[in-house]
Structures are given as structure tokens and as C-alpha cells.
Design brief:
It is a single chain. This protein has 167 residues and is an alpha+beta fold. It has a single domain, classed as Aminopeptidase (3-Layer(aba) Sandwich). 31% of the residues lie in helices and 25% in strands. The strands form two sheets. The protein has a four-stranded antiparallel β-sheet, sandwiched between helices. Strands 5, 6, 7 and 8 form a four-stranded antiparallel β-sheet that branches. A hairpin with a 5-residue loop joins strand 7 and strand 8. It is globular and about 40 Å long.
Length: 167
């Protein structure tokens, strides 16, 4: 298992991964592909967004690749927080391929993402999940998450917020 940056090499696998999601919004949303945008353009746009285009927070995206060269997960690491990310997104957003859930990949992916936040010098890492996502909450707690106050979005969705303190 390893983290790898998105590149043209992963185009077919990324499309296959995305097609397994039955939601309109894949998690993390930075990996959502649109049919009318060529993959090369998607990668260029991702790079611009990572660099802070349109007042976005600096961020880095990775695929979690298994030993069979399949994408089993994706993670978006934000290098800081703004007011919105303090409530909903946090420093780390991650998702696991639906067919690969409940196999420990999320726990591993979050632990690897935390190593990246260490390199960025982030000592207090905020990770969030929806209140009904008990699996994600368990993953965050396994990685040292301590629950803080929840946040309720305007449409009623409750977001659980966890802080992970790093040495």
C-alpha cells in the first residue's frame, strides 16, 4: 500500500473508482470527475486548486494504491483552515472505494495522511465526518481523534468534529 499523487497514469483506474460511487458527490469531492472535462484538463485544474486558485486553501491530493495497482482510497489534505473548513471539512478529507470498505483501508489511509500533516508542521489536525457515518468516526478515533463540538449545517446535517494532536 502506498500514497501516490494523481497523474495521467491513473486515468482509467480513477474513472473505474469513481463509477463505483452511487452518490452525486464523491468523497473527497476534489476527485470527482465530470464527463465533459478531459482527464488532462482535470489534472491541470486540480494542480491550480492545490496551489490556491480562487482563494482555496493550499492542499495536496493522493490516491491510496494497493498491491494490485488499484486505487482503494483517496485523500485531500488541506494545509490550513478557513472558517468553513473549521466547521465542516477539516484538514483531511478521505474516502474509500465502496467495494473495499470495512477492510481497514480507511484507518491506514488516515494514518498515512497524518504523516503528511506532520511534514507540513500541522500539530492539531481537524478531521470531520457526518454524524451518521459511524465507520468514519471510529477510524478517526482509532487515529487519536478527540471529539469536539458538532456543527449543524443550515439544511440540518450534523457534522462531527475531531481533533488529533500530533507530537
Amino acid at each position: 500500500m502506498r500514497l501516490e499523487r494523481p497523474s495521467l497514469k491513473w486515468k482509467t483506474e480513477h474513472i473505474t473508482y469513481m463509477n463505483e460511487w452511487d452518490d452525486d458527490r464523491m468523497t473527497p469531492s476534489s476527485f470527482h470527475l465530470q464527463a465533459d472535462i478531459p482527464y488532462e484538463v482535470y489534472l491541470e485544474e486540480m494542480a491550480a486548486k492545490e496551489a490556491g486558485l480562487d482563494n482555496r486553501m493550499l492542499n495536496t491530493n493522493y490516491f491510496l494504491i494497493d498491491d494490485n495497482e488499484r486505487i482503494v482510497g483517496m485523500v485531500n489534505i488541506r494545509h490550513g483552515l478557513n472558517d468553513s473548513l473549521r466547521q465542516i471539512g477539516g484538514h483531511i478529507g478521505y474516502g474509500i472505494r465502496p467495494a473495499e470498505r470495512r477492510k481497514g483501508y480507511a484507518t491506514y489511509l488516515l494514518s498515512e495522511a497524518l504523516k503528511k500533516t506532520d511534514l507540513l508542521g500541522i500539530r492539531s489536525v481537524l478531521v470531520t465526518c457526518n454524524a451518521d457515518n459511524v465507520g468514519s468516526a471510529a477510524v478517526i478515533i482509532k487515529n487519536g481523534g478527540v471529539e469536539d463540538e458538532s456543527f449543524t449545517e443550515p439544511h440540518g446535517n450534523v457534522v462531527r468534529r475531531f481533533w488529533i494532536e500530533r507530537g
